[in-house]
Amino acid sequence: MLVIPAIDLKAGQCVRLEQGLMDKATVYGRDPAAQALAWQEQGAELLHLVDLDGAFAGVPKNREAISAIVSALDIPVQIGGGIRDLDTIAAYLELGIKRVILGTVAKENPALVKESCRRFPGAIVVGIDARDGFVAVRGWADVTEKKASELAKEMEDYGVKAIIYTDIARDGMMQGPNIGTTGELARSISIPVIASGGVSCLQDIQNLMQLEEDGVVGAITGKAIYSGALNLREAIALTRGGIQKKD
């Protein structure tokens, strides 16, 4: 399992939100590229980027910071937030982004997901953000009547590389991931699932590792590693068998 550090960008800065609320943002750094490099040096094998401004605006908004991050790193980067058309996907891939995450459009324009998978094979990930089991879109501002499990199943046949599943109620709250719903989702589909939201300690990582056989291949963490509640190097070592977490 990969432990994937997250950098959320707002006005060119590294921030973390609570439950996806823009007015509950904490600034953790004003140099995103330096922060990304620090996570790489601690052993990260993949970086998760979110353009928060882009998610709300529907178009990319932090290109300068994103470009600086990609240029600074040797590890691959995946990005989401405000990606609603093929031109934006192509531009990000040309910039050096490895994987592009489609969120809102997966619900509102699934044909675009299908076409993007055809044109950019292996580079498309779908982010499913859910509140009480229902898909939320447009920066989590709108909750739909579509169940997360239904949307995930619809994405299976498109050639999507993975599903990133976020339980909004857990995101940024340091309460632990929703193991039950994450495992249920992973077991219901054949494509890999990356868990996001709520990771707060080594025990949370160990709990998610129990879902590897179900298809959970990664865990995204943000606030926990910024606050020091979770040591990224130790978390990665745990997933590689370097340390054993006592029960």
Characterise the protein shown here.
- With 247 residues, the chain is α/β, with parallel strands linked by helices.
- The model has no long low-confidence stretch (mean pLDDT 89).
- The longest helix has 10 residues, at 32-41.
- The protein has 11 helices and 12 strands.
- The two termini are 19 Å apart.
Average pLDDT reading: 89
Largest sheet: 8 strands, parallel, barrel
Tell me, what's the shape? Answer: globular
Contiguous helical run count: 11
Element pattern in H and E: EEEHEHHEHEHHEEEHEHEHEHH
Using only C-alpha atoms, the radius of gyration works out to 16 Å
- The end-to-end distance, rounded to whole angstroms, is 19 Å
DSSP E strands, number: 12
Helix percentage: 25-40%
What percentage of the residues does DSSP assign to strands (E)? 25-35%
Strand order of the largest sheet: 1-4-5-6-7-10-11-12
Ranges with pLDDT <50 over ≥5 residues? none
Structural class: alpha/beta
Précis, in short:
With 247 residues, the chain is α/β, with parallel strands linked by helices.
Task: Describe this protein with a few key phrases.
11 helices; eight-stranded parallel beta barrel; globular; 247 residues; alpha/beta; 12 strands
Secondary-structure topology with pairs:
Blueprint: E1 2-10, E2 13-18, E3 21-29, H1 32-41, E4 47-51, H2 52-57, H3 63-72, E5 77-80, H4 86-95, E6 99-102, H5 104-108, H6 110-119, E7 124-131, E8 134-137, E9 142-147, H7 148-155, E10 162-167, H8 179-188, E11 193-196, H9 202-209, E12 216-221, H10 223-227, H11 232-239
Parallel strand pairs: 1-4, 1-12, 4-5, 5-6, 6-7, 7-10, 10-11, 11-12
Antiparallel strand pairs: 1-2, 2-3, 7-8, 8-9
Helix pairs in contact: 1-3, 9-11
